[in-house]
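Ligand: manganese (II) ion. Inputs:
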Amino acid sequence: MKICRFDNSRLGVVQGDQVLDVTAALSVIPEQRWPIAQGDPLILNLRRVIAAAKKLLPKARRRPLAKVKLLSPVPNPGKIIGAPINYNDHIAESVKDPGIAHGRTNIQKGIGEWGLFLKANSSLVGFGEEIRLRWPDRRNDHEVELALVIGKRGSRIPREKALEHICAYAIGLDMTVRGPELQCFRKSIDTYSVLGPWLVTADEIADPNGLDLSIKVNGETRQNSNTKYLVYDVQRLVEFGSAMYTRHPGDIIMTGTPAGVSPVKPGDLLHAYVQGVGEADIRIASAYA
Ligand code: MN
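Predicted complex:
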């Protein structure tokens, strides 16, 4: 099932070029008192929400997908986790191009030594919004990635159980201003984390380590690869991070980007694709924020 959040936080099921409005299914999410539980309430209750949505589908109001504003399908993740240098061809281009690596000399040591980084939750938007670039004098790059959504709480998750902890997949854009600072700073600018265009539930993706992914800028292909080239594959990323911190329902993992990262400018149109998830456009706002 493809699940989206749209317009004024309505809940939708995507079928072809239509969105079926199943907002009433959100009523199964219990009211929470402060302090709220760790995790995104939609994802914490996803099974019940899906069961309720299925009952609503036959009579649901249909809207053309092109007419709705798609928001991040996970509104309140506990954390957004990024995987640095997780495709060998991206490592190679980072070594070659000082505009990417900014003097870092330990690129080749690999993700095992770098670990993972966190992006601020306040950076998260959906494909119906715009990316608002900052730093006109600096290089702002696109990074297209497969995004995982954690559905089940877990710490020290072993590789064999990793897929059980993933409830959904999406396209992730890990937008980045290049420079000498830590990733958590450079990749946390408002609108620099894009998730969507919707969630595809994990039952629709037999093997997340074999998905084509690509991005075009103004119609020109810049990145085009397959998740089979991940250095740390999907299961290893879940295992690796959960050795350090508990994974909570709604945590988002952006799995890393292949070669072809390149600068974007105000007004550019990005078109991102992940096999089995779908494809969508997102616009870079016409002026710097
Ligand atoms: Mn990235």
